[in-house]
Amino acid sequence: MFTLLKRIIRSGWINFCRNSGLSVATVFIMIITITLVTSLFFLEKTTEFLIAKIQDKVDISVYFKEDVPEKDIFGLQDELSKISEVKDIEYVSRDESLKIFIQKHGSNQILMESLKETGNPFLAHLNIKAFEVFQYEAISKFLEKDNFQNLIKEVDYYQRKPIIEKVFSLTSNINRAGIIFSLIFGVIAVLVAFNTIRLAIYNQREEIAVMRLVGASNWFIRGPFIVQGIISGKIAALITLLLTFALCYFLSPKLQTLTFDLNIFSYFTGNFWAIVLIQLATGIGIGVFSSLIAMRRYLQV
Question: How much is the pTM?
């Protein structure tokens, strides 16, 4: 058994080296295939990152009447924190609101003069963030309860509702686009790899026919092609890993300036072994699977 396995491996390596032109073409196609699959991994992570960042920019605010004591505001804050839809709550006092306004508009003399005349016009408020954009409506309805009306002056949900709906639509479209691209890339990867392996097998059809005539078993014929698929997959995975490293390293600074500080190089380093496993499994898996299917379907072995 060990001797037979050794012969199959040796035969597969010899065929790989002998058909160097076709082997290089196979490895090249495998690189494209593995790159497509790796792109799916980064696409999923990027989609999750962008959706999280977009949702993080959305919140609603609850403004309280001027005479409401802070203990009542904190009481309402505790009630809100018990709601499953609420992710985070930030309390901003009247004085803090004034400081924030002055920091932003301190250079505008007209506004500063108006503040001196009118005093502090700002109200204490809570900034509320939900886990998902569609959950803000439920939070808003909770705040409409009668026992809160003597505290709350305004909830700006309905003013922000058009923006929230646009964000919800945008995140849904990003998710949908991610799924569509994943399906397209996956189909392309399988088809490209399958047809390349089939071409390699077809190129050696006469040699296969001779082996069949001399009584070689099906697995002895299939074995070298499976070995070729494994060798091609490993080489392609190694090259793709190096290319992925280079692309992530050089593109990451540029993408950070274009997006919400998206650092794809940190994704690469943080998920290095997962990426190696994905690339090896893709290269070897498609090489072996395509060899088995192509041999069975096209050469009737």
Answer: 0.62
